[in-house]
Amino acid sequence: MALAEVFQGLGTSQTLLTVVSLALGVLAAYLYLGRSLPEGTPPLIKGDWPLIGPTGFWTRRWDFFREAAKASGNFSFHVGNRIVVAVSGDEARRAFVESRHLDASAGYAALFAGAPTVPKAVDTDQEDYNEQHFFRRITAMLKKENFVKGLDALISDTRTRLQDLVNDPKGMTDPFESIYGIVYQLTMRTVACNEIANDRVLLDQTLDMFEKIEAASSAKLIILPWFPFPGKLRRLWYGGKLYMIFKKIIDDRAKTGRKEDDPLQFLIDKGDNVSEILTFILGALYAGQLNSGVNAAWVIVYLANDPYWRGKVWEEVKAMAERYDSDTSKSIAERLASAPLEAWETELPTIDLCLRDSIRLNLVGSMFRQNQSKSPVKVSEGAEIPSGAFAAYPIGDVHLNPEIYANPEKWDPSRYLPDRAEDQKIKFGYLGWGAGRHFCLGMRFAKLEQNIILAFFLAYFDFDKLVDENGKQITEQPPSDLNSYSAVKPKQKIYVKYSVRG
Ligand code: HEM
Ligand SMILES: *[C@@H]1O[C@H](CO)[C@@H](O)[C@H](O)[C@H]1NC(C)=O
Ligand SMILES: *[C@@H]1O[C@H](CO)[C@@H](O)[C@H](O)[C@H]1NC(C)=O
Ligand SMILES: *[C@@H]1O[C@H](CO)[C@@H](O)[C@H](O)[C@H]1NC(C)=O
């Protein structure tokens, strides 16, 4: 039954392809599974099918981790021919985020696979790409001085996009389209190039390609990464198209000698070659988009249903606008545009609380690591990840734990206020921006863009209703999909009904 579900998930239209490749893979995996796990590795879970592993990992990830951990504590399973050790509990979480030998990039590359990469067919150099290059460049790009310089552009991008909503007579918007699109434009502005950030058509086209690449990633591609499933071909196709769009821009600048004041120019001036630049830009856009875009939209959805927090945020936004521009003949949105970077970063603490609890609910799935240590090292007792194997920590183990977060499935920013401080109850009690050795490098930018987008949305619009596509009110808070692999847009479309503030 569960296995049938997985086969369905694997795509019935390609059944033949799937069956043939599964048969091949089963053989390989069978040989592999015959090997026993090194001592100290938690035992293999029941229902660990050859090749596919446990079906629940693919069909309902959080339920699977939670039920299996309850039954067997830490446990191991297979994904293709890889061994994954699922760990949970306080001590394991701590080792997971702090261990020097557990590598995050390799973990996600093998087991997550939603990110676009430069297709090999187009770029034969990519194997040489040095991860340190990515971290160095993104750190330089996301420095404070660049935000000071870029603030006006971020504000003007946001206001232009919101003006589209002002002009739209329908007065309702799906924030997972509109707000998500604004986040994409701001991300493009901050880690990529002006040619696209200035061009609404190119923005929409390239965002569509990113989304197609993401949608084409599936269990199959993770289990058999080398097999040319249609999804893999789609990923290559759209990856290739993105590559060509950026390459054309780079070539054009080289040919005409034109310089821009933007992140791409920074990379070109550093002497990076086309292959390095493209790998960087695709990675940075992806890292910057999904969580930021999905959470910005969710916060607006939560606020639409919550007069208390909406009122509090609005008070803060209004106060900030009034503080930096005393001209009462102007609109709050106009006055807001005078606030300096420091104000944007420190004077909207309620938005931060709102975002914090949205991330807790929407950073779902699991964190991955690979043990890249070849030789035994002394680590604290407990679950051992064999050399080359993977570790998975389901984020719900802490974020949805009712002993830490009261009523965990409810969005409630007040849980972080000093009198409750639920996230401080235990060490690494909140993983929303990473912890230990891997902390989000984009947090400062992500918070800044959330603040700008939300503050201007409140400054332009009054909103207190969620509706469906026919304009019928939705009173129940739509739930987040706690079983998905990563932050996702809700399955059912939600619209926010708004009126333009006078
Ligand atoms: C609401 C928005 C965001 C959330 C919730 C978020 C969350 C996270 C988390 C939880 C991690 C650690 C993952 C792990 O340890 O396994 C992380 C890492 C990272 N994030 Fe973010 N992020 C956001 C926005 C951004 C943005 C806008 C950028 C860049 C433009 C970015 C760039 C990165 C990078 C480069 C890393 C890797 C750091 C490392 O491996 O050491 N993130 N993020
Ligand atoms: C680009 O730079 C990388 C790293 O320096 C190098 O490995 C690669 O061969 C270069 N590619 C081209 C086309 O020059
Ligand atoms: C990673 O593998 C090495 C070599 O087998 C082992 O000594 C080490 O304890 C492992 N690390 C973890 C965190 O399990
Ligand atoms: C997993 O292993 C860790 C480390 O030994 C231990 O503290 C934790 O309790 C285990 N988790 C479960 C659910 O048994």
Describe the overall structure.
By secondary structure, this protein is α+β, with helices and mostly antiparallel strands. It has one domain (32-500): Cytochrome P450 (Cytochrome p450), CATH 1.10.630. Helices cover 53% and strands 8% of the residues. The protein is built from 21 helices and 10 strands. The protein has helices at residues 2-9, 15-34, 56-59, 61-72, 90-98, 104-111, 131-141, 144-166, 178-191, 194-197, 200-215, 219-223, 230-256, 263-269, 274-304, 307-324, 332-336, 341-346, 349-362, 396-399, 443-460; strands spanning 75-79, 82-86, 102-103, 172-173, 366-371, 390-394, 434-435, 438-439, 461-467, 495-500. The strands form 3 sheets. The chain has a 5-stranded mixed sheet with strand order 1-2-6-5-3. Strand 1 and strand 2 form a beta hairpin. It is globular and about 75 Å long. The model is unreliable at 1-12 (pLDDT under 50). One 2-acetamido-2-deoxy-beta-D-glucopyranose (NAG) binds next to helix 15.
Instruction: Kindly report the name of the CATH homologous superfamily.
Output: Cytochrome P450
Structural class: alpha+beta
Helix content: 40-55%
> What's the story with the biggest beta sheet?
5 strands, mixed
List all distinct small molecules, including ions and cofactors, that are bound in this structure. Answer: protoporphyrin IX containing FE, 2-acetamido-2-deoxy-beta-D-glucopyranose
The CATH C-level name is: Mainly Alpha
Q: Helical segment tally?
A: 21
Calculate the terminal CA-CA distance, rounded to whole Å: 57 Å
Q: Major sheet: order of its strands? A: 1-2-6-5-3
The residue-averaged pLDDT reads: 89
For the record, the count of structural domains works out to 1
The second-level CATH architecture is Orthogonal Bundle
Count of DSSP E strands? 10
Strand fraction band? 5-15%
**CATH fold category name:** Cytochrome p450
Poorly predicted regions are 1-12
| Overall geometric form | globular
- Which radius of gyration do the C-alpha atoms yield? 23 Å
Family: Belongs to the cytochrome P450 family.
Organism: Aureobasidium pullulans (Black yeast)
Pfam family, one: p450
InterPro entries: CYP450_sterol_14alpha_dmase (IPR050529), Cyt_P450 (IPR001128), Cyt_P450_CS (IPR017972), Cyt_P450_E_grp-IV (IPR002403), Cyt_P450_sf (IPR036396)
